Amino acid sequence: MGCLGYPNIQMNWASNTRVQVVAESMTRNRFYKRRNSIKIINDLDFSDDEKRSDLLWRIRPLLAKMRQGCLSLPRKEKLCTDEQMIPFTGCCPVHQYVPGKPYRTGLKVFVLAAPTGLVLDFVVYEGKTTFRDTGGKGIEKQAVLHLAESVPQGTHLFFGRFFTTINLLDTLKIKGLTGTGTLMSNRIQKECEIIGDKPFKKKERGASEMVARRSPPELAVIKWLDNKPVVMASPAYGIEPQDTRTRWSKKDKRFYNNNMGGVDLVDRMLSFYRMASRTLKWTVRAVLHFFDLAMTNLWFQYRSDLQFQGKKPLKFLDFKLLLGEELITQAQAGSASDSEDDYTPPRQKWKPQPNEALRHYGAIHLSEMVDETHASRYRRSNCKSKMWHTQNVCHLISFI
To answer: Is the peptide bond before 217 cis (omega within 30 degrees of 0)?
Structure first.
């Protein structure tokens, strides 16, 4: 359903827009009943104290299973961290508003991803109780340090202006990690005597200046003039070597900030064919989001494996359609393998009688009185239900 993108779910069962693989596998009413009854855990298994201490207790087993799968994936030398939004506008105990995002309202997730878009770790933000004591103040520092616990030493992290602070970079350096990110002007320390924005804007586009701190841990603060001044901080990279390149390099076939786009890439892939069914339950929205995330991660791994073998992978749309068809086929095969007492054959599609081509052709489709036994039962062969008396049908048509 997410691949087809119908504006209304009922169109999958409608006569003029019917999707055969969906309509024949499950009826419309049964689908709605099952979707509204989606639950991850039994409410009676949790005490009142556990429910109050964990705002996400309704989906906690799913989050643990998803995170376990992400942590089992191999790590690369360069990773990135960023925010991700689960779109939802209804009532939710962890509802957040983040301006500047494509989806501004919903559940906020901090994500650790590879440059290829593969999600390696995540944590759903639930307020002040989200992170345990990680040795620092501020949600931006706690989020990065929490995600950095699953990466080996020597890894280089990239993050945006929301996360970058001088204190965070120094803490990562002590832990054997390095980080690079854009820095807000109000987070530049007073000891850093870097050029101001007004005199810097008078220079030509592409100009850059650097201020370095030699005392350990070493750190470089670089200001670069693009459309406006951009400040970056890093203990691993400086102003040299300098080069000239466009935002998209035809030679390398990649963007100049390719190490920072992993989370944005997975967000874009999720937005293409999202399971965007309307619901008032935040748990259903979160469950569908992480199902989509699992399939997106699977496609990233599949594409990487086939590119390594020199083969051409399927497009994301074709891959997701094929995966959906396989899951439906396996479910139907599992139902057929059950015992005869438990197996209910699918209901056959109703066929109109007389033929559809003759139903509105003149008046030849009307009933007529016949002098036979049980003439009041106007029905199809092998039908045991009673129908209207033909005389009543004629009276009704005459009245219309």
So the answer is: yes
Using CA atoms, how far apart are residues 177 and 155, in angstroms rounded to an integer? 6
Show the domain range for 66: 61-240+254-280
Averaged pLDDT of the chain = 81
Domain count, the chain: 2
DSSP label at residue 73: S
Write down how long the chain is: 400
pTM for the full model? Answer: 0.77
Burial class (CB in 10 A: 0-12, 13-18, 19+), 292: buried
Tens-digit pLDDT profile for residues 32-45: 998 888 888 888 88
Encode pLDDT of 87-120 as tens digits. Answer: 999 899 999 998 888 888 999 999 999 988 999 9
Please list the residues that pair with 213 across neighbouring strands: 219
- From the list 12, 15, 120, the residue with the least C-alpha distance to 66 is 120
- Give a yes or no: residue 47 inside a domain: no
Q: Are residues 275 and 355 in the same domain?
A: no
Task: Identify the three-state secondary structure at position 373.
Answer: coil
- Quick check: 112 and 81 in contact, CB under 8 A? yes
